[in-house]
Amino acid sequence: MKINFSIVHKPLTISKIKAPGQTIQVYQENQSINLQATKDAVAYLQYALSNKIPVIVGVSNVPGGPNSDKSTNHWVVIVGSGTDSNGNYFRFYDSGATNQVNRATSVANKLYYNPTTGEFKGTSDTNYGAAAAYQMTMVRKSKKIL
Amino acid sequence: MKAILYNTYLLLGGIMWCFISTCMGQPSTKQHVENRRDSLLSPAEISTSYLYWYISHKSKLDRINIFQADTASDTDNYKVDFKRVNFYLNQIKKSGFVSEKYIDTLKKAYLAADEKLNLHPQNDGPIQGFEYDPILGIQEETEITQNVNEFKVISNSIKDDHAVVLGKISDTLWIRFDLSKTDKKWLINAMHPYFK
Question: Mind telling me which InterPro entries this protein's record contains (chain A) (predicted)?
């Protein structure tokens, strides 16, 4: 399994939700998927990872969500990408584990990208993620702290 | 003599401090709520007062450890401590701004969490369904807690014994309150953030 995972500790923060040009909404409940947005998301994630920048993305694993898109209920950090027998994926660290670092950073934490449907779906090795699969909802661009 | 002068300075200083805090300073959130609770409040006033009340009591309420009450180690599974749920809900109810229906809705959320935790035991991370503030209903709660003084009631529609109050924290973040009148008193049945 090839993983081009690599991050460096840079002073970064995340963009505010819906900040113009800074959030890429790829999925919202009860709405069709915007394929262009998913392509933009993949392009940004690849750009960020190639520059060793981790990216926070929103995910949904239950109906509804306590955020402005009414879909996102959880957040993970994209730290790498790769390909396996199931397809192309983005690897993530899961904020859903506080004490179990090995689960939070498990190599099994992957979101698979389907270029045909535009869906990013995957599972997490954490307790929190065991209940249901994750569907990526949005990408929040990383920003340098000035 | 020196002692008399010293005590006089202290007294004058105290009087000045009281004068400045009472007359010149902004009323605290607590004062805002306490001063208004006993009067007959409109739906808009009830909604605003509850928002202020909750934010001023939030840190205390957050310390009621509902999910990990008996957890001695990191590997013990979470469980809902219903004694603490009842205590928590009682504190909310004692604010005097919410209805039985509001309390029931919250209690159902804890019952649902208990059911989920039995199906999918957890001993780490956020609780499914409680990844956000259960009262404010928003994950980025600082958008409300840090900007509560910006809250403005925009509309207040009353029909018979029901009312809907819409207020905004910012142009993009609104809050909707649903109220009903019981025993000549308006009480909140539901409070939801509303994103524009």
Answer: Papain-like_cys_pep_sf
**Predicted complex: ipTM over 0.90:** no
Closest partner residue to B195 among A62, A68, A73, by Cβ?
A: A68
Nearest Cβ partner for A66 among B74, B120, B139: B139
**Domain coordinates in residue numbering, chain B:** 1-28, 37-195
How far is B156 from B24, CA to CA, in rounded Å?
A: 31
Q: Which residues of A touch B74 (CB under 8 A)?
A: 99-100
Instruction: Give dist(CA B162, CA B19) in Å, integer.
Output: 42
Q: Which of B121, B124, B131 sits opposite A100 (nearest CB)?
A: B124
Asked if B195 and A70 come within 8 Å (Cβ–Cβ), the reply is yes
> Are A67 and B125 an interchain contact pair (Cβ–Cβ within 8 Å)?
no
Mean of all residue pLDDT scores within chain B? 83
Q: Cβ contacts (< 8 Å) between A97 and chain B: which residues? A: 124-125
pLDDT digits (tens, 9 = 90+) for A8-37: 566 788 887 777 788 999 999 988 898 999
Please tell me if residue A28 touches chain B, with a CB cutoff of 8 Å.
Answer: no
Residue with tokens 């202020």: B52
Q: Nearest chain B residue to A17 by CA: give it.
A: B140
End-to-end CA distance of chain B: 67
- A33 vs A122, A136, B53, B107, B138, CA distance in Å? 17, 11, 41, 35, 24
Residue B2 has pLDDT above 60, yes or no: no
The secondary structure of B86-124 as a DSSP string is HHHHHHHHHTS-B-HHHHHHHHHHHHHHHHHHHHS---S
Task: Identify which of B183, B148, B141, B195 has the alpha carbon closest to the alpha carbon of residue B47.
Answer: B148
What is the least distance, in Å, from the CA of A116 to any CA of chain B? 31
SS3 for B182? Answer: strand
